[in-house]
Amino acid sequence: MVRTYGGVAPEQRRAERREKLLAAALERFTADGYAQTKIARLCTDAGVSTRNFYEEFSSKEQLLLTLHARINEAAYQRVGAKLDELADVDAVTRIAAALDVFVATVTSDPRLPRLNYVEAVGVSPELERQHQDWVTRWAEFIATEAERAARHDLAPSRDYRLTSIALVGAATGLLREWQAHEPPLPVDEIAAELKGIMLAAITRQ
């Protein structure tokens, strides 16, 4: 028999504490900066004890790793789902729709690009490895769509590896610029600029 506290099972309580810590970390890391944030402050904000913190995360860095991965995974899944819906449309329409979904997801909360492209940069070798893993995944994603465009004679048939890496960098740069403004720049402008850059890069001869 599972013991409950106030009618809530231990597993649910742990899951709730974990989410409270992640929410507190997203707020503090982007408002005060990752380096300036103390674990004690995160615990206070989340309403949990330090012991509870270390039951869920081994360190402050693990919180950052988890948030960074969560932001990228959410965008990756939503873009993939959108492309699944557009399996039979032309490659240019697919790319434009995918970018709209990507930008909408990452800019749905101004804290997300701040954490992903500012606070998570240069923190540790492990963060850098995770960041590079995501650069690779996004670049492979773009290359796949570029190759699809080439098969349909909408782009030249060539190696898109370097182009795709450059396009990931362009997206990162635009989103860093977006989050740096108060209020943020219009999202539509960011999406339009990124679409223009990507389509030009993929279709150039």
Architecture overview:
- By secondary structure, the protein is mostly helical.
- It is built from nine helices and no strands.
- Helix 1 packs across helix 6.
- The longest helix has 27 residues.
- The radius of gyration is 20 Å and the shape is elongated.
- 28% of the residues are buried.
- The mean pLDDT is 91.
Give the topology, please.
Layout: H1 10-31, H2 39-46, H3 50-56, H4 60-85, H5 91-106, H6 111-119, H7 125-151, H8 161-180, H9 187-203
Query: Which parts are unreliable, with pLDDT below 50 for 5 consecutive residues or more?
Result: none
Strand content: under 5%
Structural class: mainly alpha
Mean pLDDT: 91
- Helical fraction equals over 70%
Largest sheet at a glance? none
**Helical stretch tally:** 9
Strand-and-helix sequence, N→C? Answer: HHHHHHHHH
- Radius of gyration equals 20 Å
Give the termini distance in whole angstroms. 67 Å
The overall strand count is 0
Cα shape:
elongated
